Amino acid sequence: MRSKLIEFRNVSFRYGEEQPWVLKDCSFEIYENEWVAIIGHNGSGKSTIAKLMNGLLFPQRGEIFIDQKPVTPDTIWEVRKDVGMVFQNPDNQFVGTTVQDDVAFGMENRGFTRTEMLTRLEEVLAAVGMPAYRQTEPHRLSGGQKQRVAIASVLAVSPQVIILDEATAMLDPKGRQRIMQTIKDVQHSKDITLLTITHDLHEIVQADRVIVMNDGQLWDEGLPREVFSKKDGLKEIGLDTPFISSLAEELKLAGISLTQEPLNHEELLEDLWTLHSRT
Amino acid sequence: MDITFKNVSFVYQQHSPFAHRALDKLDLHIPSGSFVAVVGHTGSGKSTLIQHLNGLVRPTEGDVWIGDFHLNAEHKPKNMKELRSKVGVVFQYPEHQLFEETVEKDIRFGPKNFGVGDREIQRRVKEVLPSVGLTEDFLDRSPFDLSGGQMRRVAIAGVLATKPDVLVLDEPTAGLDPRGQKEMMEMFYAAHQEQKLTTILVTHSMEDAATYADHVIILNKGTKYMEGKPEAVFVQKEALQQVQLDVPEVVRFLDLFEKKFGMSIPYRRQSVKDIAKAIEKVMTGGSGHE
C-alpha cells in the first residue's frame, strides 16, 4: 500500500482574528513519491497550504501531519528536514557568496561532516546541471540558473518532499521547461515527493494528481485528465484549461466524438487518426 | 507618436572589463497607433530597449526618435520631463512601486509630478478607475491592504492617469492567474483602442502576442532577428527555435496535424472554434484548404 506522507485534517487558517478564512476545512492526503500539482486562482489559498506544511504558519483549526508527525511549534525543526521549499523569486533565497557556499549552507546547519558535504555538493550540482558554476557568485546567474541552485540546495539535505511555490513563474518558457525537466529527473532518481503550486498548465498536465483550490476550499482533486474534463467549472472559478482540452471541447461541439479527454497533442491526433481511418 | 531606432547600440559599463553590449545596431520603426509585441529570450535586450523609450538611458551609438524627441549619445532633449509624460511605462511587477498612504494619492502622484492641475487630476482619477476595473470605494484604502492583482491595477491606473501617447508594458501579466491575465490584457487592449495609444508589449507569451499585436518584433542578442505580422512570424518554427523561442501551441498542433494527415490547415490567428471546424472538414473528407 502507498504510504501517506502528508495529511491535512480539517485545516482552517486565517491571518488574523478579524480577517476572512483563507483556508476552510481542508482535508487531503499526499502519498510517497507522488507528484501533486495544486492550482487555483490568486488568493485561493495555494501558497498558504505550502507555508502550513513546513510550519511557516500554523492552522487555527485542524491538524497537519508530515510523515506521521504533527506539525507544531515543537516539531517544526524535525518537519523542515523533511520538507524543502523553492519559492517564486530566486533572489530572495540566497545566503552564500558562491554557489557552493549556498548549497553547503543547509548542510552545515544540519551538522553534516565535511567529507559528506563535499560528496553531496558534487552530486546535487550534477543533478541540476550546474557543476561548472561552483565558484560563481549567485547574482551573476540567470533566473533559471538561480532556481536550479535553489533546487540543489534543497536536494542536498535530502528532504522527503519538495514544494515548488510558483518556482518557474519568473522564467521564460525555455527556462521553465528546463527546470521542470531537471525536477522530473531528480524525482525519478531520488524517490522524492513533489508538490508544485502553479498556474502553468503544462506543468499540471505532467503531474500524477491535481488538487484544485477555490476560495480556500478543495474544489476538486483527481487525475489531470479528469480535472481538465470539467472545463466549464474551471472557467467559473477563474482557471483555464490547456489548449488541447479547449480544442477537444470544440471538436466535440463540431460533432467529432473523441474516445478520451486528451492530455497532449499526440493523444488527440492519435484519437483523430483512429476515427479518420474508420470512416 | 512614431518611434524610430536607427543603428542603435547600447553598452553597459563601457570602457570597463565588464562592458556588455545589450543593443547592437538595432533598427526599428513603430508607426503611431500600432500595437507591437517585442519578444525575445532572457538577455535579448528587451529591457534595455524599453529604457530607451522614455529616456532612462541614451544610446551609446545611433539615434532614437520618439515623436519629435531625439536622443543620441551627444544629444539629450531639454524637455525630458515632457517625453516621460508622453511615454507611460508599466514595469514588471509595478505593484512594487506603490508607496502612498491611499490609492487616490498614489494614482495622483504621476500627473501631479508632470504639473497637471488639481481639477484635471480629479477628473482623470475618476476616468481611469473603471478602465482598470476598480471602483471609487478603493480610493481611500491603503494600497498595501489590497490583493496583488488589485495593487497592480492601482499602479497601472497611476500610469494611465498621466495620459501617455505611448504605453510600454513589460511582462504585465506575470504572476497573475489565467483569468487575471486575460482581464489585464483585455484592459490594455481596450485602452489602446479607446485612447488611440501606441502600445509596446514586451512578453514571453507567444499566445498574447498572437492575440493582441498587429506587429511582432523578435529580438536576439540586442538586434532585430525577425519582424512582421504575427501569423507570418509565428509559423517559422526553425528560425524561432534557433533563438530559444517556441511557436504558439496552436501552430505546433497544426504542424503535427499536417504531418499526420498530410493536409494542412494554414495558421491565420483563427479561433480554437474555427480550427475545430477545419479539422472536422478534413475528417469528413473535405480539404483543409479553402
Automatic annotation (TrEMBL), chain A:
<dbReference type="InterPro" id="IPR030947">
    <property type="entry name" value="EcfA_1"/>
</dbReference>
<dbReference type="Pfam" id="PF00005">
    <property type="entry name" value="ABC_tran"/>
</dbReference>
<dbReference type="GO" id="GO:0043190">
    <property type="term" value="C:ATP-binding cassette (ABC) transporter complex"/>
</dbReference>
<dbReference type="InterPro" id="IPR050095">
    <property type="entry name" value="ECF_ABC_transporter_ATP-bd"/>
</dbReference>
<keyword id="KW-1003">Cell membrane</keyword>
<dbReference type="InterPro" id="IPR015856">
    <property type="entry name" value="ABC_transpr_CbiO/EcfA_su"/>
</dbReference>
<dbReference type="GO" id="GO:0016887">
    <property type="term" value="F:ATP hydrolysis activity"/>
</dbReference>
<keyword id="KW-1278">Translocase</keyword>
<dbReference type="InterPro" id="IPR003593">
    <property type="entry name" value="AAA+_ATPase"/>
</dbReference>
<dbReference type="InterPro" id="IPR027417">
    <property type="entry name" value="P-loop_NTPase"/>
</dbReference>
<dbReference type="GO" id="GO:0042626">
    <property type="term" value="F:ATPase-coupled transmembrane transporter activity"/>
</dbReference>
<keyword id="KW-0472">Membrane</keyword>
<protein>
    <submittedName>
        <fullName>Energy-coupling factor transporter ATP-binding protein EcfA1</fullName>
    </submittedName>
</protein>
<keyword id="KW-0813">Transport</keyword>
<keyword id="KW-0547">Nucleotide-binding</keyword>
<keyword id="KW-0067">ATP-binding</keyword>
<dbReference type="GO" id="GO:0015087">
    <property type="term" value="F:cobalt ion transmembrane transporter activity"/>
</dbReference>
<feature type="domain" description="ABC transporter">
    <location>
        <begin position="6"/>
        <end position="240"/>
    </location>
</feature>
<comment type="similarity">
    <text>Belongs to the ABC transporter superfamily.</text>
</comment>
<dbReference type="InterPro" id="IPR003439">
    <property type="entry name" value="ABC_transporter-like_ATP-bd"/>
</dbReference>
<dbReference type="InterPro" id="IPR017871">
    <property type="entry name" value="ABC_transporter-like_CS"/>
</dbReference>
<dbReference type="GO" id="GO:0005524">
    <property type="term" value="F:ATP binding"/>
</dbReference>
From TrEMBL, chain B:
<dbReference type="InterPro" id="IPR015856">
    <property type="entry name" value="ABC_transpr_CbiO/EcfA_su"/>
</dbReference>
<dbReference type="InterPro" id="IPR027417">
    <property type="entry name" value="P-loop_NTPase"/>
</dbReference>
<protein>
    <recommendedName>
        <fullName>Energy-coupling factor transporter ATP-binding protein EcfA2</fullName>
        <ecNumber>7.-.-.-</ecNumber>
    </recommendedName>
</protein>
<feature type="domain" description="ABC transporter">
    <location>
        <begin position="3"/>
        <end position="246"/>
    </location>
</feature>
<keyword id="KW-0547">Nucleotide-binding</keyword>
<dbReference type="InterPro" id="IPR003593">
    <property type="entry name" value="AAA+_ATPase"/>
</dbReference>
<dbReference type="InterPro" id="IPR017871">
    <property type="entry name" value="ABC_transporter-like_CS"/>
</dbReference>
<dbReference type="InterPro" id="IPR030946">
    <property type="entry name" value="EcfA2"/>
</dbReference>
<comment type="function">
    <text>ATP-binding (A) component of a common energy-coupling factor (ECF) ABC-transporter complex.</text>
</comment>
<dbReference type="GO" id="GO:0016887">
    <property type="term" value="F:ATP hydrolysis activity"/>
</dbReference>
<dbReference type="GO" id="GO:0042626">
    <property type="term" value="F:ATPase-coupled transmembrane transporter activity"/>
</dbReference>
<dbReference type="InterPro" id="IPR003439">
    <property type="entry name" value="ABC_transporter-like_ATP-bd"/>
</dbReference>
<keyword id="KW-0472">Membrane</keyword>
<dbReference type="GO" id="GO:0015087">
    <property type="term" value="F:cobalt ion transmembrane transporter activity"/>
</dbReference>
<comment type="subunit">
    <text>Forms a stable energy-coupling factor (ECF) transporter complex composed of 2 membrane-embedded substrate-binding proteins (S component), 2 ATP-binding proteins (A component) and 2 transmembrane proteins (T component).</text>
</comment>
<comment type="similarity">
    <text>Belongs to the ABC transporter superfamily. Energy-coupling factor EcfA family.</text>
</comment>
<keyword id="KW-1278">Translocase</keyword>
<dbReference type="InterPro" id="IPR050095">
    <property type="entry name" value="ECF_ABC_transporter_ATP-bd"/>
</dbReference>
<keyword id="KW-0813">Transport</keyword>
<dbReference type="GO" id="GO:0043190">
    <property type="term" value="C:ATP-binding cassette (ABC) transporter complex"/>
</dbReference>
<keyword id="KW-1003">Cell membrane</keyword>
<keyword id="KW-0067">ATP-binding</keyword>
